[in-house]
Design goal:
Strand content: 5-15%
Strand order of the largest sheet: 1-2-3-4-5-6-7-8
Number of helices: 11
Order of helices and strands: HEHEHEHHEHEHEHEHEHH
Helix content: 40-55%
Bound molecules: zinc ion
Length: about 300
């Protein structure tokens, strides 16, 4: 529980101390969620004790946190909650947490019946604007937006593109990156998204394709930065194309769906295992140089 104090973990320093000293290499999970109603700090502890050093904490859809959105300002509750979780994680464990805030494409499908399409678009764009303020204030390192990965009516598709474009504009204005949740990567889709970014003068290099398949070359051709889901084999496939990618689990921290995603230990374990075969240099690039360049942050141990 994120609400818990540090006392619960007081004994673990000794228990895991030996393992922690092995952390000489930065290991970053580029897309993770934490929920006070889920495993939360326990999941962070698992990540850290497996060798993880940095994580990118992405805001959950409001309903996952029990928050109902009726106005843009309601997103502040969501964002503040994510920031509190990040702070508690850093207090509890030796880990650096970077926060990404924004809206989830599924929100539109969820809201428009209740609030009407126009108002829903306005609210989600307002949420992105507030997220940008948090970035400008230094509380978050980037934004999140996207478009549905499933088929929707044309008007929802157009509205989703409109919201995503608005997110790109905010990212450009804040000078930050934006993670996008979209349909699976095809040549057409990736090239179209890069085109939307360019149309608002956002460098496609600042657009991070979350839940990406290991299509490193395709993304590079269009400038989009892939965040590859670290499932079995995917990372080796990605490495066979190059090192221009980051790694993520999309750990959703939902105790009702424990097996539906990769667990918090995945990235550290996969990295350590693959270092044997691929060497440390490629993972230095993936876990340090790439995120430093994309987000403009420092990845230090
Ligand atoms: Zn996610």
């Amino acid at each position: 529980m994120c609400g818990g104090g540090g006392a619960d973990y007081a004994g673990d320093g000794d228990l895991y101390g030996g393992l922690l000293t092995l952390a000489t290499h930065p290991i970053l999970d580029n897309h993770m969620h934490l929920n006070p109603a889920g495993r939360c700090l326990d999941a962070v502890r698992e990540f850290v004790h497996a060798g993880g050093t940095h994580l990118v904490l992405v805001s959950l859809p409001p309903w996952s946190l029990g928050i109902e959105i009726n106005t843009p300002d309601d997103y502040r509750q969501v964002f503040d909650k994510v920031l509190r979780i990040a702070k508690r994680a850093e207090e509890a464990e030796k880990v650096k947490v970077f926060v990404i805030l924004g809206v989830h494409p599924a929100e539109l499908t969820k809201y428009y019946g209740r609030l009407g399409l126009e108002r829903s678009i306005e609210i989600m764009k307002g949420g992105l604007e507030i997220a940008r303020q948090y970035v400008v204030e230094g509380k978050a390192i980037g934004l999140k937006s996207g478009r549905p990965h499933y088929e929707v009516e044309p008007k929802i598709w157009d509205a989703s593109n409109d919201i995503m474009r608005c997110g790109f504009e905010h990212a450009r204005d804040a000078g930050c990156a934006i993670q996008i949740h979209t349909e699976s990567a095809t040549v057409e889709g990736i090239s179209e998204i890069a085109g939307i970014a360019r149309s608002v003068r956002l460098a496609p290099e600042k657009v991070v394709k979350h839940f990406s398949p290991p299509k490193v070359t395709l993304c590079e051709q269009h400038g989009i930065f892939p965040s590859v889901l670290a499932s079995e084999k995917a990372i080796e496939t990605a490495l066979s194309e190059g090192t221009r990618f980051m790694m993520e689990t999309d750990y959703i921290d939902d105790i009702e769906r424990p097996g539906s995603v990769l667990g918090p230990k995945t990235i550290p374990r996969r990295t350590k295992q693959l270092i044997e075969k691929w060497g440390e240099d490629v993972f230095w690039k993936i876990h340090k140089e790439n995120p430093e360049k994309v987000y403009g942050v420092k990845i230090d141990l």
